[in-house]
């Protein structure tokens, strides 16, 4: 088939016709994602911005049959003064609707005359004749892949002699520019016997799998005398033979029928490409078109034999022959069935004529099924493990008996394309309760963005629905979530499956107790033993917290202490009940605590200098940061002794980026019996950090404090400490600055106390950015769009993904992934790295790695890229991406 290109010169190098290209207006969406471990060894993920490309229209069409002036595509005989009809098919091979202008021209040389009264008629039923109501046209408007039958009519002048010829051409021009001008046909003036032959197919044009096509061949003796028959091998006497090959793959299951205006009619067949013929009876059926010798000529023919003696078929006598052939139910979209009939008779010498060619193309028959994992159409009962849950499959649904709040349940699914052509699908879910966070993803966790596919007919695609249950959500009733797949090509074709969660139990619980007792199930020993302390002193209360729930959680600490008292919490890393050395940074909570895990802490209680002697109740509470109603408390009694001193409290701790600044607030409390003058000398940092003090709420700052008046009686004076950390400090560096305050009384006696500020440098994150450029054709010579906003079928899109560590700490196990966008074919992928020494590795499954980039990627596939920094030829947590290091990935695809 010839292909006419648009003015843009776009070539479809994908091995498919324009009618199979991506439809105009389709959005091609692409978004990259990455997973990694941060400096705290926590698993993280991030996604890039989305690049959207809109497919533009390509204009292409054909007019058939082709023909030149020396070799016309069709020839018609008629008496001088009679009309001739030439049948053509116009096909839109572009990727959008097109209006094609039609006109005729006649040869200026090489023939004897021009036809008169020339017109073009839209042959609505494609039967090759002009029926009542069929209009004269000068153009046809066709959707993508659609066809139109048109007839060119002309009259042979009455004065023409036998054998004179005329040449006429049907020309077409697309609204987008392409033309088709090689469709010449010949008209012949005939005064002897002149039978003609016309063929029609019903339905015409596009057909569906499993339907029957009825072929009708008809004709008339339009010459000036009666026609005679010819000898046909296998048949008696002489006769007129109308023969028609059964298109390869089609099946004739019922006897053909026919009639003629003269002679005897017999229905016949041939199974050797017309070499010999015999009568066709019901017992011979069914007959299926075949080409056993692979010579592009069907072996099996059916026909009608009109027998008679001498010149038995008079002028104006007509005939008709009809048979039906069924398209296979599994016929692939785009399969073409062309059919041309042949007529043999004698006008004094043997004549062989061919009819016009009918063309039927199998259209798209769209269907999709989606169901439980491995059973897209549903199936027998069974189960599979999904994370910490067991999913039970039954028919076209699957369920989990119960889940815990705060957890993620994953239902796996399989989709199958039951169409007869490649198709893409939109996936969706509905019915998730308010607050649930659900997403559709590929089985490796890569999020699904936009349509998936295209997938070949019969192909399957596995994916999953991931739903995270809100922390505070509980339910005793079953919850049903519907997952559906809908054809992109035909939105009326959809299928759904059901995922059921039987019940949701609270997944959060904790036990707070005195050191060594958390999680033992004995509430009687939860409270710490009573203690005593001097005014202005601190004391330690060891305690433990255990996550007795099902989900990792963090707990904030709070306390109820007498007015003026303060409390701080420190991790007890070795769980020995004693303060670790060196002094760790204080915390405000437990940090992330896994289920069935106990963490140890020490609460440091600061008793103010002016605290009155006596017993004081103290309680500590741990509260879930996820579900505020989940908490536990312990209580004890602190007895204050009668002691006086200067207090410089409390110790502080915090985190800061590099460069960065943090301000700590302290209280100076004079528990003496007279006013005192307090001084705090400058602190010299081991790392060159700057420490400054303010006693006026941050209005002014100095490197030390001198002569600060602090009244007696326990009224605190606020001192702020500002720590300035320069750029370039390593993540994790920590400095504990012990600041000393000395109070001098009028008597000259002194009292001192210290406060410790612990500052730790922390890091940032991985930044993922994506851009795209589309190029004209499958090469990178002419830019179509610098932002990849538009493209045509056959255009190349080049995506660039930049993954950079913008923090100040090492990241590890960095895997950047990018799915192959729907409506595209993979060309290549490459990557480079800067800021770190290592080898770029590639993967198509996220676990098997190679230094060689993949050369192919199937629909729905994903490209993974990582940097092997430890030389073990795989990507693990041992592979490091340091600060400022960057991975640059280039993914190239071609629009289908």
UniProtKB/TrEMBL annotation:
Sequence ranges assigned to domain DUF11 in this UniProt record? 785-877
Please tell me whether the keyword Signal is annotated for this protein: yes
Q: Where are the transmembrane segments?
A: none
Pfam families named in the record: DUF11
Q: Which UniProt keywords apply?
A: Signal
Read off the InterPro entries from this record. DUF11_rpt, OmcB-like_DUF11, Sialidase_sf
Query: What segment(s) does the record annotate as region Disordered?
Result: 519-542
Q: Where is the composition biased (Polar residues)?
A: 531-540
KW DNA-binding (keyword) present:
no
Which superkingdom, per the lineage? Bacteria
Q: Which residues form the signal peptide?
A: 1-19
Show the ranges annotated as biased composition (Low complexity): 519-530
Q: What is this protein called?
A: DUF11 domain-containing protein
